[in-house]
Write a structure and sequence with these properties.
The complex is a heterodimer. Chain A has helices at residues 38-54, 68-78, 96-107, 129-137, 191-198, 240-253, and strands at residues 3-6, 9-11, 34-36, 58-64, 82-87, 114-118, 141-151, 154-160, 166-172, 175-179, 203-205. By secondary structure, chain A is an alpha/beta fold. Chain A has a nine-stranded mixed beta sheet with strand order 9-8-7-10-6-1-4-5-11, sandwiched between helices. Chain A has a two-stranded antiparallel sheet with strand order 2-3. In chain B, β9 (269-270) and β10 (273-274) form a beta hairpin. Chain B is of the alpha+beta class. In chain B, α4 packs across α7 (231-267), α7 (231-267) runs antiparallel to α8 (279-308) and α7 (231-267) packs antiparallel against α10. Chain B folds into three domains: 7-119, Orthogonal Bundle (Butyryl-Coa Dehydrogenase, subunit A, domain 1), CATH 1.10.540; 122-230, Beta Barrel (Butyryl-CoA Dehydrogenase, subunit A, domain 2), CATH 2.40.110; 232-379, Up-down Bundle (Butyryl-CoA Dehydrogenase, subunit A, domain 3). The chains are: A alpha/beta, B alpha+beta. Chain A binds chain B through residues 17, 35, 70, 73-74, 77, 188-192, 194-195, 197-198, and chain B through 6-8, 10-12, 14-15, 18-19, 47-50, 53, 57, 62-64, 266.
Chain lengths: 257, 380
């Protein structure tokens, strides 16, 4: 079973202070650490588990800057066989659709039975690329997958729905599945695997290598900003006892107590 | 001149950091309280190859260099100083002397066990009456037939209570003074060898620190490391190497303390503003961060000297260990200061880091011994 995994290198913003830069279109990146997008690590692990069960090869692809090669190397240390970086520096501003087109233009030439992506990237939260990519290359897809079985050359994908329901889909292969976090327990790369991966080649694909029609962008980023503090927010001041009294009064005043 | 980490070092740093944050952080405060040896995590680390970082693959290790070992120990110690020194001792105080001075049979027999975590390593130099003055050791070994008969007591031995393979130093000929010291590989089940008092330490509390007691312990003569009389040389060379990782442990503890202090200073308010806005706090941060970076560079440089194959790097590793230990204690103390009264509470990580940091100035050569090594190099 040949598997393609799309991964993205994103800033780790969960505990960091994120500030907008002077262009108003990007965040200040120099003090942030970057790593593989969280749900992509689960997609990669799922690919490795499928490979361990059914054999085949894993190709990891990232559309990113040269630093994304660090992320791709770690993917290889964990168990991917091949890695391709699409040179983001060649393609200017990216939206979800353009990203999917670029990934698709490379993926169409690679033999695959299944494509796995993370369910969304934690830098832009679009959750578009997986779905758009499946449509562009003309294969079925399922999103937010929490379990995969392969039976008789078909994928059985399970999706968690609201209200505690579980949806079970049978999907013809090749298919694309966007993977939810928690589907497995991503492994750490062993030191020996790291040493071997450090020597492996990463293929790069640039503008000159992408054949076919024009790569389109459907949306452009207008502005990135920290929203102003809402007018209805009220900061309570005073001693702990005074704040507690004020808070109780407000709750009582709204008829909630 | 190149300050960049190599691709494999960058990946190692990334994966060890993730491992430490996910697996070590939740248990670090618990094992500090209980003193329980973190076997579950040690086994996980063995699987990743962290117990034999500097051991070549042919002996079951990961085949990395000493700068990489320093990076790994730093990342582990940033989260859990106990686990940091357990890994350091297994690598550079046990596997390293066997790798460097052992014969092929000894390497094939013992290194795979140390790398797989099947048996952990410990090193026995220090005695109740011999610390900095190594040559004052009282342990003796005499050859009787096919065995050395070892007598003596080793104290303050990291990993001792849980180890299976010990590298132990004893006099085989007292008249030759330090040239009469020899080194032995001792297995846990050796007749006449037992564990003594378990030390209840101030910091690094989960390191199974224990006494080794040898009462006519019978060591097979093939377990002599190198030749009789090589012990002092093995001891000094091993400490030159291990001081790189103790420096790395210090950098890790200091970085952990700084990270905690910065985080706290943004949350804690006084006089109507976060305390990170006060210049006196900022002054402390500037000093802490600068000293940590200087220490890190000294540590990496000492590792580089070893990796480059420099025949002597005692001064470089002594500088790294001395300076990094010194600033780790200072940075941890300032981190406590920035936390105010909360820093004195066991509910806050910096309290543990401050206690953990103190050992750095004492073990594997006190700061005073490091200064002697550095100064002798200048005036000899």
């Amino acid at each position: 079973m040949d598997i393609i995994v799309c991964v993205k290198r994103v800033p780790q913003t969960a505990e960091a202070e994120v500030k907008v830069d002077s262009s108003g279109k990007d965040i200040i990146r120099d003090r942030l650490t970057f790593d593989m997008n969280e749900s992509d690590t689960y997609a990669l692990e799922e690919a490795i588990l499928l490979k361990e069960k059914f054999g085949g090869a894993i190709t990891v692809i990232s559309l990113g800057s040269v630093e994304a090669e660090d992320t791709l190397r770690i993917a290889m240390a964990k168990g991917a066989d091949n890695a391709i970086r699409i040179k983001a520096e060649d393609f200017g501003e990216l939206d979800g659709y353009k990203t999917a087109q670029l990934l698709g233009s490379v993926i169409k030439d690679i033999k695959h039975d299944i494509i796995l992506t993370g369910c969304l990237a934690t830098d832009d939260y679009y959750a578009q690329v997986g779905v758009a990519l499946a449509e562009l290359i003309g294969i079925p897809h399922a999103t937010l997958v929490t379990k995969i079985d392969i039976v008789d050359s078909k994928a059985h994908a399970y999706r968690e729905l609201e209200g505690g329901l579980l949806e079970h889909l049978e999907i013809n292969l090749p298919a694309l599945l966007t993977i939810q976090t928690g589907i497995n327990e991503p492994r750490y790369a062993s030191l020996i695997a790291i040493r071997r991966a450090a020597k492996k080649e990463i293929k790069t694909v640039g503008k000159a290598d992408i054949a076919g029609g024009e790569i389109m962008q459907h949306s452009t980023l207008e502005e990135l900003f920290t929203p102003p503090v809402g007018k209805r927010a009220e900061i309570l001041t005073g001693s702990m006892d005074e704040i507690a009294t004020k808070l109780t009064d407000i709750i009582k005043g709204k008829g909630l107590l | 001149m190149n300050f960049d980490l190599t691709n494999d070092q960058k990946m190692l740093q990334n994966q060890v950091r993730k491992f430490a944050e996910a697996e070590l952080a939740p248990v670090a405060p618990e094992i500090d309280k209980s003193g329980e040896f973190p076997w579950d995590n040690i086994k996980k680390m063995a699987k990743l190859g962290l117990l034999g970082i500097i051991v070549p693959e042919e002996y079951g290790g990961s085949g990395f260099d000493f700068v990489s070992l320093a990076i790994a120990v730093e990342e582990i110690s940033r989260i859990c100083a106990s686990t940091g020194v357990i890994v350091a001792v297994n690598n550079s105080l046990t596997a390293y002397p066997i790798l460097q001075f052992g014969n092929e049979e000894q390497k094939k027999k013992y290194l795979p066990q140390l790398c797989s975590g099947e048996k952990l390593g410990a090193l026995g130099i220090t005695e109740p009456n011999a610390g900095s003055d190594v040559a004052a050791m009282e342990s003796t070994a005499r050859l009787e037939g096919d065995h050395y008969i070892l007598n003596g007591t080793k104290r303050f031995i990291t990993n001792a209570g849980e180890a299976g393979i010990y590298v132990v130093f004893a006099y085989t000929n007292r008249e030759l003074k330090h040239k009469g010291i020899s080194t032995f590989i001792v297995e846990r089940d050796t007749p006449g060898f037992s564990l003594g008092k378990h030390e209840d330490l101030m910091g690094i509390r989960a390191t199974a620190n224990c006494e080794l007691i040898f009462e006519d312990a019978k060591i097979p003569k093939e377990n002599l490391l190198a030749q009789e009389g090589d012990g002092f040389k093995i001891c000094m060379n091993t400490l030159d190497v291990s001081r790189i990782d103790i420096g790395a442990q210090a950098v890790g503890i200091a970085q952990g303390a700084l990270d905690e202090a910065v985080k706290y200073s943004k949350e804690r308010k006084a006089f109507g503003q976060p305390i990170c806005d006060f210049e006196m706090i900022q002054s402390m941060f500037a000093e802490m961060a600068t000293k940590i970076q200087a220490a890190r560079l000294l540590v990496y440089y000492a590792g580089y000297c070893k990796d480059k194959g420099m025949p002597r790097f005692s001064k470089e590793s002594a500088m790294a260990k001395y300076y990094a230990s010194d600033i780790a204690v200072e940075v941890a103390r300032k981190a406590v200061q920035i936390h105010g009264g909360y820093g004195y509470s066991k509910d806050y990580t910096v309290e543990r880091l401050y206690r953990d940091a103190k050992i750095l100035e004492l073990y594997e050569g006190t700061s005073e011994i490091q200064k002697i090594i550095i100064a002798r190099d200048l005036v000899k």
